[in-house]
Amino acid sequence: MINIPKGTKDVLPADAYKWQYVEGVARETAKLYNLKEIRTPVFEHTELFLRGVGDTTDIVTKEMYTFRDKGDRSITLKPEGTAGAARSFIENGLGNGVLPAKMYYITPAFRYERPQAGRLREFHQFGVEVFGAKGADADAEVISLADSLLKRLGLKVKLRINSIGCPSCRAAYNKALKEYFAPHLDGLCYDCKARFEKNPLRLLDCKEEECRKINAQAPSILDYLCPECAEHFEALKAYLALAGIEYEIDPRIVRGLDYYTRTVFEFVSDDIGAQGTVCGGGRYDGLIGELGGAPAPAVGFAAGIERLLLVMESTGVKIPEEEKPLVYFAGMDAECRKKAFALTIALRHAGIYAETDHMERSIKAQFKYADKIGAKYVAVIGGNELQEGAMNVKCMASSESEKVDFSSAAEYFRKKKGE
Ligand code: ATP
Ligand code: MG
After folding, report:
1. Which of 71, 184, 310, 389 has its CA 20 to 30 A from that of 360?
2. What is the pLDDT of residue 57?
């Protein structure tokens, strides 16, 4: 027996409707905001993520699924969706088209992490990217999209925002961070010691208890913003107010990826513990240039679909039930089952959700099965019915029956479907 790889999960047929629901609401919300879908490959050249995610991030230093293909190229399974979308934006010259370029994706993502609730090695993201708009209204737009999605799904989450400035204000801030952390170096974890040298901002993102305690007193980036970044952050707050979105300012949010500039944000649920961040995003004006494109501003977010489902489940959000078959065709004997089969196929051609027996069940067992799958009507065909050319249609809820000619079955059920 071969088992599923650690940190991965099957979505079983009985549960798939939950995924379809969440993905459907995500697609609908994206449409309301005038976004189009982008699909990029599941694997890319490793170099894309080294440059596009950043070589001091947890993703790049520890979590990537990287391998050599048969042509000896270094290939990596996408650990997130932004780098691929950005590559595609550049490669396809989308910057020369209508701007802003607003797009979304639904994609699997792969990270070699320690599996736990809400933390998998293959997980799925709904993500949004808006390329080409530099104003804070674009940031507020993507935050509002995330907010709409979460509300439509019935989630109660808090929005936390921050600004991590631009490279120029961050230079001064990094210096201040280094001065603050230098006397605490011994108390920091192994990873943070490396972060201290390479990218002090990353220190604030550490999840280790000891490091978090030290982080609590660290200087705030908001005190180091240059006038332009400070103005952008003020504008964001004003646009969020216009959108009627509540938020908290949290100067500790820096986000996991290296390429963020200015706005960063997270939507957090208090209901699933440590993995409560259902959605994270921000602005990354440096990314397109970093990947070799003509510099273009960008802002976006990604939400983890497993985490959305987890929070929905733990807070008792009801997911609309799946549609049930309208009619089940039951046959008394082998001959009648053939007629049932033919009618089932004919009705499906007419757009009716229909089912019949494939297990040579007795008529009693067929009724039981029809009930189990929630069929609204059971059409019974016995020897008499075959001769008459009409079947007995029973409504499962009212137990009332009526005779319906085989020849008018499609019309009959099309009417029932509309009721
Ligand atoms: P975390 O702090 O939880 O590790 P992150 O900063 O690594 O999150 P992002 O890279 O911003 O996460 O990814 C966006 C979203 O994808 C997260 O908010 C989360 O909902 C989801 N996500 C990230 N990693 C995983 C994972 N290993 N398993 C399931 N969902 C994940
Ligand atoms: Mg992570």
Report:
1. 389
2. 86
- The reported pLDDT for the residue numbered 99 is 97
Residue 192, phi then psi, degrees to nearest 5: -65, -30
**Burial of 116 per CB tally in 10 Å (0-12, 13-18, 19+):** exposed
Of 59, 275, 287, 310, the residue with max ligand 1 atoms within 8 A of its CB, to mutate for a pocket test, comes to 275
Shortest-distance atom of ligand 1 to CA 205: 2
75: which DSSP letter? E
DSSP letter string, 328-394: EEEESSHHHHHHHHHHHHHHHHTT--EEE-SS---HHHHHHHHHHTT-SEEEEE-HHHHHHTEEEEE
Give the nearest ligand 1 atom to 207 CA: 2
Determine if ligand 1 sits within 6 Å of the CB of residue 142.
Answer: no
Our answer on whether the CB atom of 302 is closer than 6 Å to any ligand 1 atom is yes
CB neighbourhood size of 73 (10 A): 12
Which ligand lies nearest the alpha carbon of 121? 1
Cα-to-centroid distance, 264 and ligand 1 (Å): 14
Give per-residue pLDDT as tens, 26-46: 999 999 999 999 999 999 999
Q: Which residues of the chain have pLDDT under 50?
A: none
Q: Which of 58, 120, 123 to mutate to test the pocket of ligand 1 (most atoms within 8 A of CB)?
A: 123
- Phi then psi for residue 228, to 5 deg, are -65, -40
Q: Would you state the structure tokens that stand for residue 246, as one six-digit string?
A: 């509540």
The closest ligand to the CA of 80 turns out to be 1
Whether the CB of 256 sits within 6 Å of ligand 1: yes
Q: What separation in angstroms does the CA of 93 have from each of 127, 232, 349?
A: 21, 28, 43
Rounded CA gap, 101 and 252, in Å? 30
Q: Give pLDDT, residue 202.
A: 87
- Identify the pLDDT of residue 327: 98
Rounded Cα–Cα distance for residues 318 and 324 (Å): 17
